Amino acid sequence: MLLKRILLLTLCLCCTLMAKTQVNTDHMMMVGRNALYFKDYVLSIQYFNQVVNAKPYLYEPYFYRGLAKFYLDDFTGAETDCSIAVQHNPFVPDCYQVRGLARVNMGKYREAVSDYRQALKYEPTNEGLWHNLALCYANLKSYDEAIGVLDTLRNVAPSYTDALNMRAQVHIQREDTLAALVDLEASLAINRFDSDVYGIRALLYMQQERYEEAEKDLTYAIHLSQKGGYYINRALTRYYMQDFRGAMADYDLALDIEPNNLLGHYNRGLLRAQVGDDNRAIEDFDFVITHEPDNTFALFNRALLLMQTGDWQKAELDLSTVIDEYPKFMYGYQCRADVRRKLGRNREAEEDELIVLKAQIEEQNRLLVGGAADEKEEEASEDEATRKASDKNINKYKRLVVSDEAMGETQFASAYRGKVQNRNIYVALQPLFVLTYYRKGDDVSRTIHYHRYVEQINRRRQLPAELLITSAEQPLDEEQIAFHFKDIDEQTARFADDEGTAIYRFARGLDFYLVQDLDEAVDDYTQSLVEDGGLWIAYFNRAVAMYKQIELERAVVNTDLSVEEQQAGSASIRLSEFQVILSDINKAIDLAPDFAYSYYNRGNILSHLKDYRAAIVSYDEAIRLDASLAEAYYNRGLTYIYIGENQKGIADLSKAGELGLYGAYNLIKRFSE
Question: What is the pTM of this model?
Answer without folding.
Answer: 0.69
